[in-house]
Amino acid sequence: MAEEPLSANVTFTVHYSPKRVMVKGPSVAAAGQTFTLTCITSSANPSASINWLVDGVEVATVSSLVSEGEGGGWVTSSDLNYSLERSVSLGEIGVECRAYNSVSDAVVKETRVISVIKPPGRPSLQVEGVGDVVAGGQLVVKCSSAGGNPHPGVTIYKGHEKLLTEVTVDGRVTIARAVTEVTPSDNGAKISCQVSNPATDTPLVATTPIELFFPPWEVKAWVFPSNVSAGQVAKLICESSSSLPTSTITWRSGSVTNHGATSMHRPGLYGGQVTRSELEVRALIEDNQRTYICDATNGLGVTVTTNVTLNVLHEPVWKDVPSGVVEVKEKDDLLLRAVADANPPPVTYKWWRGPVLLQEDQEEGGLLEMTRVHRQEAGGYSVTAESPRGIVNASFILNVLYGPEGMMAPKRVTVDEGGSTVITCSAIGNPAPNITWFTQDSNSSIREALSWGISEARLLIDFVTRADTGFYRCLASNVVGTAKPAKTAVVVTQAPEPLEEEPLRDDLPSRPWAKLGGTGRLECFVKAAPAPNFRWTVNEDRVLFNSRKYFVRGPHLIDGLAEWSSVLEIRSVTDKDYTTYTCTASNYMGTLTSNHTLGPAIPPHQAYNLSVSSVIGTTAILTWIPPSQGTTPSGYSLRYRPLHDEEYLRQNVEGRGTTTVQIQGLSPGATYEFAIRTYNSQGTSNFTSPTTKVTIPGVVEEAASSSRQPRMPRLTLLLMSLTGAALLVLNISIIICFIRRFAVNRNTPASSYKTAVSENYTPASTPAMTTDDDEEMKSGGPDSVTTAVQYQITRQSSEIKDDGGSPGITNIIHHYGTDITETSKPKDKLLPNVLPSAQFFTTDSPTNNSKSALINGGLNIRVLYLQIQRLNK
Question: How many alpha carbons fall within 13 Å on the CB side of residue 844?
Answer without folding.
Answer: 3
